[in-house]
Fold:
Amino acid sequence: MRKLLAAALCLAATATGCGASVETTPKDARSSSVTLTNCGQKVTFDKVPERVVTNDVGITELMFALGLDDRMAGFAMPDDKGDLGGVPWKDGYDKVKWLSKDQLTKENVLDARGDMVFAGWNYGFREDAGFTPDALKKLGIPSYILTESCRNGRTKTSRGIMPPLEALYTDLTNLGKLFGVEKRAATLISGFKKEVADVRAEAPAKKPTVFLYDSGQDQPFTSGRYAAPDQIIGEAGGVNVMHDVQDSWTTVGWESVVERNPDTIVICDYGDVSAEQKKKFLLSYPPLRNVSAVKHRRIFTLDYVDLVESPRNPSAIARLGAYLRTAG
Structure:
């Protein structure tokens, strides 16, 4: 599976490590200011960052996929996010310093002499710890916010201003412009769009219903319509049974899962509880015994990074699409 992922992404990418030519950043771009639209606001970078600090696996891999590991000072990421050895940009993980196996802090960033932080709300940025773009700005450090995590007007903390794949393409485009690798970004986006379109073309006429299970036994943590799994499931040919929930990642009741009777359950694999343990729980939990996915043992696993904004999203769609076409 991981070999297929590597092959698909190498076709789309022009980064080192895939055996393709490298698009170099123009030298004069280092001193040029660049203005981007990030989360609906204009943000100007006075110079091209050279010591970027990232938070979490999907954000870090956006930089790696664009061949920007040489512009990074380090990343923060728990070590429970799956195998990193089989990804196309393994060299990035080998080269860039792992600053913390928790979340970023101002101390991490300052110690690394970071000149930009790339993180997201609930993917590093958080009010309770005072680690926000505004707090970093006071230290003279600019930020770029992951578009999937942009806050909107539904509540003070609600996230999502566009479909998740559009968010992925937006961030690749913006990063390409900021770092002078527009062609590389465009090649990635073109390859990803084709991969997703190919899956959509093979989708079954009758769309199976899918429940995304992240974690939780008393109440399940899942994806509403504004988190990436909703569109990943849809592009793969299924329907998220929680699509009507106007939230991103959120908690629901088991009774709503039973009532909606999903054909398939997708497990999000990360954390201290393994995917196998989660599957065992789902298959043995009495309230779910008559749910179609449990009765027919139609349970599929995707990694955490497949299900948050990342360059692995298109491959996840392809793998889930193949499963939905054959499960029956």
Summary: The chain has a mean pLDDT of 90. The CA atoms of residues 265 and 299 lie 5 Å apart. The radius of gyration is 20 Å.
